[in-house]
Amino acid sequence: MRWDDARVRPTVLIVDDHADFRRSAGELLEAEGFAVIAEAADGDEAIGAVERLRPEIVLLDVQLPGPDGFAVAERLAAGPDPPAVVLISSREATAYGPRLAGAAARGFIAKRELSGPALAALVG
């Protein structure tokens, strides 16, 4: 039997404190070729989910209860075999200034611009 890696969908953890956004983002990404394997509502829950599930990609809201997205991204980057982290926000990138440029993330997508192609462009 031959393994066809091209058919394996990248796994995603969606981290956002709004359930409606997690649900709609999950449906969108599933329809565009990603496998959404879990959701988390805050930073601590996200860290636990990454440790348990080992997603390839973490779609991480900047503004979260508890540790914010920047702190969570730093912690994930320091772990073994870290996932590709993409920060998201309802605010534009300019709202975060140099903090965004120094973040331990592959990039940033404004929530209104989220799409499968936009995510794929950042995570390769």
Number of strands: 5
Silhouette: globular
Order of helices and strands: EHEHEHEHEH
Q: What value does the Rg take, in angstroms?
A: 14 Å
Oligomeric state, counting identical vs distinct chains: single chain
- Arrangement of strands in the largest sheet: 2-1-3-4-5
Largest sheet: 5 strands, parallel
Helix content: 25-40%
Give the CA-CA distance, first to last residue.
Answer: 27 Å
Task: Report on this structure.
38% of the residues lie in helices and 21% in strands. The chain has five helices and five strands. The protein has a five-stranded parallel beta sheet with strand order 2-1-3-4-5, with helices on both faces. Strand 3, helix 3 and strand 4 form a beta-alpha-beta unit.
Would you summarize the structure shown here?
Helix content is 38%, strand content 21%.
How do the strands and helices of this protein lay out in sequence?
Elements: E1 11-15, H1 19-31, E2 35-40, H2 43-53, E3 57-61, H3 69-78, E4 84-89, H4 97-101, E5 107-110, H5 116-123
Parallel strand pairs: 1-2, 1-3, 3-4, 4-5
